[in-house]
């Protein structure tokens, strides 16, 4: 402190420099504080766009991909509870019928089912789905279906089959499903498209490079089409998601940062049109702990720091997964 005082006393220029840099520092701290307070207001105070705008209670239909398990099933259930009819799209017809029956009995809405394996769906399959959707009023699309690496794996060691599946499901399915429904949304000048993003798309994730790249694509693409479709009455929202208890995450226990699907989906549907912790257009990080984590990533340390952290985390997970695989192999010999 004495050194600063001596520096200031040496000349008026020194005093001016200290004052300028002090003012800049105070301004930066003030802006950071305001942005953090905005996150808290978004996730704890504000309410998003009411789903009635998108046909809830007046005959609108929501289409959900990957709808028979985890987050997708929860989206179908909660959208039906808001009195949206639902179209369930997933691989297993038996599971689809079971979920549809459960939703109809519980919420007294209409349902449709369409069995589709997105890893090998061709144009004929998407056209067949389009024939089902064109006669109804699709007001909401939830691009939820997704797949990941089996374990964290260096890119050069990953199988061609897994690379293919990630691209087909995480990238192409979102684009093709949007192509199917967006013309009728534009025609009515009303629609909502929710894309299930990931923190892996926010910060590059070594050892999950293809998955991470697919989610980065989804983020960029959502922002681009969000700007295109907004003037035509269609709202696009890429949802930044940290871990949620699900079969894909392979996490079974909930924690402060890892919610069950029910509260997570509730936060998404309750904050349509609100950015939460996200700082990019057409993007939301609605769940409160995820929102704070998103804000920290954007405002604390460097991107190199966060990539390095991801590298360490995934390298450790890979070591443990390989040890488990070896144990199972030896046990089965």
UniProtKB/TrEMBL annotation:
GO molecular function, one term: very-long-chain 3-oxoacyl-CoA reductase activity
Catalytic activity: a very-long-chain (3R)-3-hydroxyacyl-CoA + NADP(+) = a very-long-chain 3-oxoacyl-CoA + NADPH + H(+)
Subcellular location(s) per record: Endoplasmic reticulum membrane
Topological relation to the membrane, as annotated: Single-pass membrane protein
Subcellular location, principal: endoplasmic reticulum
The entry's keywords: Endoplasmic reticulum, Fatty acid biosynthesis, Fatty acid metabolism, Lipid biosynthesis, Lipid metabolism, Membrane, NADP, Oxidoreductase, Transmembrane, Transmembrane helix
Superkingdom of source: Eukaryota
Pathway terms, separated by semicolons: Lipid metabolism; fatty acid biosynthesis
Transmembrane intervals: 20-45
One Gene Ontology cellular component: endoplasmic reticulum membrane
Residues that hold substrate according to the record: 198
A Pfam match: adh_short
Catalytic residues (positions): 211 (proton acceptor)
Enzyme Commission code(s) on record: 1.1.1.330
GO term, biological process aspect, one: fatty acid elongation
Function as written in the Swiss-Prot or TrEMBL entry: Component of the microsomal membrane bound fatty acid elongation system, which produces the 26-carbon very long-chain fatty acids (VLCFA) from palmitate. Catalyzes the reduction of the 3-ketoacyl-CoA intermediate that is formed in each cycle of fatty acid elongation. VLCFAs serve as precursors for ceramide and sphingolipids.
Family: Belongs to the short-chain dehydrogenases/reductases (SDR) family.
Protein name, as recorded: Very-long-chain 3-oxoacyl-CoA reductase
Organism: Actinomortierella ambigua
């Amino acid at each position: 402190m004495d050194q600063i005082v001596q520096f200031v006393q040496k000349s008026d220029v020194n005093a001016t420099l200290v004052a300028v840099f002090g003012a800049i520092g105070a301004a930066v701290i003030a802006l950071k504080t305001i942005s953090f307070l905005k996150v808290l207001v978004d996730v704890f105070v504000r309410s998003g766009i009411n789903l009635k705008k998108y046909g809830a209670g007046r005959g609108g239909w929501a289409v959900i991909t990957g709808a028979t398990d985890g987050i997708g099933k929860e989206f179908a259930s909660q959208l039906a509870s808001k009195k949206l009819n639902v179209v369930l799209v997933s691989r297993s017809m038996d599971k689809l019928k079971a979920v549809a029956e459960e939703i109809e009995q519980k919420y007294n809405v209409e349902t449709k089912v369409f069995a589709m394996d997105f890893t090998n769906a061709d144009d004929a399959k998407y056209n067949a789905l389009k024939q089902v959707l064109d006669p109804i009023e699709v007001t909401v699309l939830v691009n939820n279906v997704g797949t990941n690496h089996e374990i964290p794996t260096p890119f050069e060691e990953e199988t061609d089959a897994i690379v293919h599946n990630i691209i087909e499901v995480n990238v192409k399915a979102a684009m093709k499903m949007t192509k199917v429904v967006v013309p009728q949304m534009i025609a009515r000048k009303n629609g909502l498209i929710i894309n299930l993003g990931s923190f892996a798309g926010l910060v590059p994730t070594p050892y999950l490079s293809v998955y991470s790249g697919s989610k980065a694509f989804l983020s960029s693409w959502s922002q681009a089409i969000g700007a295109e479709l907004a003037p035509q009455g269609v709202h696009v929202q890429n949802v930044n998601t940290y871990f949620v208890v699900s079969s894909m995450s392979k996490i079974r226990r909930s924690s402060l940062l890892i919610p069950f699907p029910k509260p997570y989906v509730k936060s998404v549907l309750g904050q349509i049109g609100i950015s939460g912790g996200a700082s990019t257009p057409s993007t939301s990080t609605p769940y409160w702990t995820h929102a704070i984590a998103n804000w920290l990533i954007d405002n604390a340390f460097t991107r190199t720091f966060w990539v390095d952290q991801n590298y360490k985390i995934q390298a450790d997970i890979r070591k443990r997964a390989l040890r488990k695989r070896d144990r199972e192999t030896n046990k089965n010999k």
